[in-house]
Design goal:
The chain has 414 residues and is mainly α. It is built from 17 helices and three strands.
Amino acid sequence: MKYFRVTFFKKGKKEQKIIRGMSRQEAILAAQKMNLGRVVEVREIPVPLEERIKYLRDLIKSRLLRKKVNIYAYIAALRQLTVMVKAGISLKDSLEDIGQYTEDETVKEIFLKAAEAIDSGKTLSSVFEEYEAYIGGVSVAMIRLGEQTGDIVMALDNLARIYEKMADNRKRMVKALRYPVITLFAIAGAFTFLVLFVVPKFKAIFAELHADLPLPTKILLGAEYLLSHYGWAVALGLVGLVIFHSFMYKTSKKYKYRADQVALRTYLIKDVILYGSLQRFLMVLGTLVKSGIPLIDALKISQGIMGNSVLQEKITFIIRGINQGRGLGEMLREVDLLDFIALKMVEAGEKSGELDTMLQKASNYYDDKFDAVVDNMQAAIEPIMMLVIGGLVLLIALGVFLPMWNLGQAVKHG
């Protein structure tokens, strides 16, 4: 969601108002619906300070209260809503019934509020937009698409399929990372225990040596001093760093762009992000094109689910090129977004008039690549973990026994 400062004249007086919207055109339409007056300028602006403060407050609140949507409960609710609306039950009654019986508190809140909003003449997408931080921008985009096309059942069904695929990918990712993460925490715990409870026992012995200690021993003693005197500060600093990153990532475009750049250059992570983002993008784009949505609009909607701003910037460049009369395949080749095989699929679909079909095939292609990366992730991480474990064991061994060995050598030659 973007923010725009709308300048307008009302009763001969120049005024300004900040409006949220997916695009500049949407902000203009919103201003016209508000009857603000004669609009003279619409300019995109950074996220306002009050919105950043509000987001930080909501972020802290959500972290403390753990207010988030269970993706499986959300998928189940979407599936139930699809079946009920398809059976002829009104959207308002369907939302109300599902909201009353679902166990997830956030899904319950969203659906019951949506039922009230529809009863008062509002749209379902307007309510979903309020909960975009919890359910994602793709939900808002797909529901808005259903409202525009008049086929809300299709939109709900496609949305459920998208989230089912995302949930499946997330499950595979968690499974692949479970062993490395558990191992990493075990290593960190063991190292902390040794530093806090074993190293101090040797500290007095080292002090009696009255000799220059080797570097590994100095590192161990420094770590012991840091954790024993400032361990709480280190823990608070790590928590604060996570909150700061989350806040800046959501509110600062420049920070988010740089963080996304780093992610796309990081070993293993880059492939997971790239393949996962392209799979979602191509899947949604193919679905929208198949539904008859103009390519430009389909690209704008699909762009929002990629998550990574570096990849989104490439889609913006593609949209600009298509607006100038260039082809999708040509622009994809220019921005170097897809690999050779996927690019050939899209170009073939564009030439044969079966773009939606080939976009889905390209999506499946990247889905297979994503699965391959995730399946091989544990094998790729294990050498790194072994190096870390070996390095820590070597540090502790040298730090504890090297001074003893030096002392023994000094006595032997003394």
